[in-house]
């Protein structure tokens, strides 16, 4: 049986130039014949052990023998050592044309195959840039923070499987085995005796009252010319300078940092919402007692059956889908002089990440149950935390829910996510005294806020919409009865 192995490259030290390698695999033995334009070599080997030896020897050369066949149970692979790979920008989504590159490695770093070298931050998401091979980074073709486009060359990596060693520390100078003991310093000589005190000054005779002085009185100083005055405005005030560099004094510094593309995009969209929509906010409060009790009673069975925890967010998403179905104007949007009504419900959920606020979208929420919503939320949340959200995960959306209560927010007015027409803001659940059937009771209450575009949605529709969400959360049986 005959199989051919194509070899690219040159064996610099051990083997001659390989152009074509033929492996003969009879029943008992194997022979490998190598031919080249200048040198020829024939190796007779028995079994896979000798073939492995040849592969081991080839690691000292630029290339390893390559084949897609299996030789006696061993799968060969193709690796060209010392080859330089130039990595380009990965393809962007249709709505993205450029991004800013951020490097996570440095020149000279050893990277494995598929290890992330950097990322490209676009207006909507971050795209990781992995290394296609195992090797060492030799050059960056774009600086950190530079703007790059699709297909642009980013960096070069040299193929190698050896991790570069750190430079060895210089050896310390050996200390002599025995050193002559240092003689102690001589004791200081005793100080000489102090000199005798000087003789006291001669005693002046005490002047007797009525005696005549023998010395003339001192002459008074001669009068000087009067000084000329200056106007107050021409006098330069002397300001006491504060000491510089003294320890213990606080320092005041400023640092200017370029805004990330995502932060610039967030700022632009929020300002567009303020400049375009006529935003108005209405409020209500929700008694969370029933939903808390329902979760407490069924969370174990829910987790066991669906392999996902039951949270409160799914109840608000399901209630919002119910309200949007009954009030399609909240799910609509203004397009110039037209109103676009949508028969589908895609709810965006605001998620806070270290890089900024992102709003991944749950598609077709109207057909989801609580378990479907919780699983979709968990998947999108994990993508957001790891920076794996794609542009497609955030495109679209007909309504947004923002839960500031997870950070302790008590009250707030959310801003519409354009081009949508409304957004629901959730807040913290706090025990408060409320009137229940003429009695004061302590109930877990949550304030909710609905910000809407008053150009499209009137106050009556907005208040009715928020009351439908309140009713569906407080009594989930309304969803079953479609009330």
Automatic annotation (TrEMBL):
Keyword Transferase assigned: yes
Domain of life: Eukaryota
Biased composition annotated in UniProt, kind: Pro residues: 181-204, 214-224
Top-level class of the enzyme under EC nomenclature: transferase
Pfam families: 2-oxoacid_dh, Biotin_lipoyl
Cofactors required: (R)-lipoate
Lipoyl-binding domain ranges (all copies): 84-158
Any one of the GO BP annotations: L-lysine catabolic process to acetyl-CoA via saccharopine
Intracellular or extracellular location(s): Mitochondrion
Annotated pathway: Amino-acid degradation; L-lysine degradation via saccharopine pathway; glutaryl-CoA from L-lysine: step 6/6
Function recorded in the entry: Dihydrolipoamide succinyltransferase (E2) component of the 2-oxoglutarate dehydrogenase complex. The 2-oxoglutarate dehydrogenase complex catalyzes the overall conversion of 2-oxoglutarate to succinyl-CoA and CO(2). The 2-oxoglutarate dehydrogenase complex is mainly active in the mitochondrion. A fraction of the 2-oxoglutarate dehydrogenase complex also localizes in the nucleus and is required for lysine succinylation of histones: associates with KAT2A on chromatin and provides succinyl-CoA to histone succinyltransferase KAT2A.
UniProt similarity note: Belongs to the 2-oxoacid dehydrogenase family.
Protein's UniProt name: Dihydrolipoyllysine-residue succinyltransferase component of 2-oxoglutarate dehydrogenase complex, mitochondrial
The species this protein was found in: Acanthaster planci
Gene (UniProt): LOC110975163
């Amino acid at each position: 049986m005959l199989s051919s192995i194509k070899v690219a490259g040159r064996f610099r030290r051990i083997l001659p130039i390989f152009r074509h390698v033929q492996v003969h695999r009879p029943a008992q033995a194997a022979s490998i014949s190598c031919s080249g334009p200048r040198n020829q070599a024939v190796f007779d080997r028995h079994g896979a052990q000798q073939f492995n030896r040849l592969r081991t020897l080839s690691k000292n050369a630029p290339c390893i023998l390559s084949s897609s066949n299996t030789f006696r149970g061993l799968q060969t692979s193709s690796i060209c050592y010392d080859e330089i790979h130039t990595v380009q920008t990965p393809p962007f989504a249709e709505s993205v044309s450029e991004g800013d590159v951020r490097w996570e490695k440095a020149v000279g770093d050893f990277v494995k195959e598929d290890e992330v070298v950097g990322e490209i931050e676009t207006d909507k998401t971050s795209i990781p840039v992995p290394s296609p091979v195992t090797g060492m980074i030799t050059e960056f073709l774009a600086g950190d923070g530079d703007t790059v486009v699709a297909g642009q060359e980013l960096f070069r990596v040299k193929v190698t499987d050896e991790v570069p060693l750190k430079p060895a520390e210089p050896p310390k100078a050996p200390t002599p085995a025995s050193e002559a003991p240092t003689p102690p310093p001589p004791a200081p000589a005793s100080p000489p005796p102090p000199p005798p005190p000087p003789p006291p000054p001669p005693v002046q005779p005490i002047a007797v009252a009525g005696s005549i002085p023998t010395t003339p009185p001192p002459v008074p100083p001669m009068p000087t010319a009067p000084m000329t005055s200056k106007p107050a405005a021409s006098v330069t005030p002397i300001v006491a300078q504060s000491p510089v560099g003294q320890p213990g004094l606080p320092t005041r510094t400023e640092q200017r940092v370029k805004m990330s593309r995502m932060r610039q995009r967030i700022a632009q969209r929020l300002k567009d919402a303020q400049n375009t929509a006529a935003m108005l906010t209405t409020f209500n409060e929700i008694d969370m007692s029933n939903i808390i009790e329902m979760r407490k009673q069924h969370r174990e069975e829910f987790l066991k059956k669906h392999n996902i925890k039951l949270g409160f967010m799914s109840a608000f998403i399901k209630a919002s889908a119910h309200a949007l179905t009954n009030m399609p104007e909240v799910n609509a949007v203004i397009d110039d002089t037209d109103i676009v009504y949508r028969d589908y419900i895609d709810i965006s959920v605001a998620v806070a990440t270290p890089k900024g606020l992102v709003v991944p979208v749950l598609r077709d929420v109207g057909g989801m149950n609580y378990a479907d919503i919780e699983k979709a939320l968990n998947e999108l949340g994990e993508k957001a935390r790891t920076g794996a959200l794609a542009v497609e995960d955030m495109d679209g959306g007909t309504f947004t829910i923002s839960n500031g209560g997870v950070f302790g927010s008590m009250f707030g007015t959310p801003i519409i996510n354009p081009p949508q027409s409304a957004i629901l803001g959730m807040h913290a659940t706090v025990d408060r005294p409320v009137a229940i059937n003429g009695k004061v009771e302590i109930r877990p209450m949550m304030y909710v806020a609905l910000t809407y575009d008053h150009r499209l949605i009137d106050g009556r529709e907005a208040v009715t919409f928020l009351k439908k969400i309140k009713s569906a959360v407080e009594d989930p049986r309304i969803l079953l009865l479609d009330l």
